[in-house]
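sry for the spam today, last one i promise. struct tokens for design, 312 residues
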């Protein structure tokens, strides 16, 4: 397996970078991977998945989106040639801007010759993948959509519900009002109280997850009458996984899986949990990688009976 650093721009001008894992044989198939909160593209889990993919002649591109790490400075190149300085990282990001990151990564991979794309996301990265796919459909970006051959969602979290459960209903309402007051006074980048979240978070980011979340609130597992319209709108093969130990879900993993299997209509869905796995799939990375590969292999078998290769 070879590694190549890739520098590219999100479609709104933010410079990003990542690592492209290359198989020995040239291919037109790539997995684009998005990390979760305060994380990055260098996780051991991604290394294991990348190794499995490249052994099977599939490239793997993990990149640091604008929400990587906890906090950092970003630059955005505007159309008038000016450079805008921004605060980035999980503490400050607006998850809706991930659309520009994912779209930019897709355009870069297409430029490199990867015409079959699998979008993979872990935790908040899974939210970003599904949001981007939904946005591409809303904007009728059929050309880009035609290159997406599968969606891979790892530990998709119901973020608003987990916030309420973690804080308790009374404290949640107090924190919500605090965030609103900060923003009303022009202090959207000010930090929330330390116990508002699992890590330092700005009022802007807290409000996006807790209240102004209509565009990303599509993992409402605890609502018995919710029919998951965004997930049901996925037209390509769909892969979803969770763990059952220390996972960020409010019900047993088996119940969650059974509920989704009943409600999701995708005929090429592969939905399950990995026994003994936690939210990060610690010590279960090999099994996760194998299951992702089996999903891709089955999909490619139906399309072409093989992973398409480009002659060297």
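last one done:
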């Amino acid at each position: 397996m070879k590694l190549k650093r890739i520098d590219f721009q999100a479609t709104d001008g933010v410079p990003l970078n990542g690592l492209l894992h290359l198989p020995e044989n040239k291919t037109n198939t790539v997995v684009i991977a998005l990390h979760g909160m305060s994380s990055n593209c260098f996780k051991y889990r991604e290394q294991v998945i990348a190794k499995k993919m490249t052994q099977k002649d599939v490239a793997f591109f993990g990149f640091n989106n604008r929400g990587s790490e906890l906090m950092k400075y970003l630059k955005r190149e505007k159309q008038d040639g000016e450079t805008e300085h921004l605060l980035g990282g999980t503490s400050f990001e607006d998850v809706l801007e991930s659309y520009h990151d994912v779209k930019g990564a897709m355009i870069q991979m297409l430029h490199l010759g990867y015409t079959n794309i699998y979008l993979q996301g872990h935790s908040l990265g899974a939210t970003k993948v599904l949001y981007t796919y939904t946005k591409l459909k809303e904007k009728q970006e059929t050309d880009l959509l035609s290159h997406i051959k599968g969606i891979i969602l790892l530990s998709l979290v119901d973020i608003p519900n987990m916030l309420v459960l973690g804080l308790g209903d009374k404290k949640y309402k107090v924190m919500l009002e605090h965030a609103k007051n900060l923003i009303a006074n022009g202090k959207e980048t000010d930090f929330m109280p330390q116990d508002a979240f699992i890590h330092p978070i700005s009022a802007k980011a807290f409000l996006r997850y807790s209240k102004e979340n209509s565009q990303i609130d599509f993992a409402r597992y605890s609502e018995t009458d919710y029919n998951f319209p965004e997930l049901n709108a996925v037209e390509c093969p769909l892969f979803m996984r969770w763990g059952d130990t220390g996972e960020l879900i409010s019900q047993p993993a088996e119940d969650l899986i059974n509920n989704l299997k009943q409600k999701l209509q995708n005929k090429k869905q592969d939905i399950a949990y990995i026994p003994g796995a936690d939210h990060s799939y610690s010590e279960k990375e090999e099994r996760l990688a194998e299951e992702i590969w089996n999903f891709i292999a089955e999909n490619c078998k139906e399309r072409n009976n093989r992973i398409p290769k480009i002659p060297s």
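Residues 285-303 form the longest helix (19 residues). ok im logging off now
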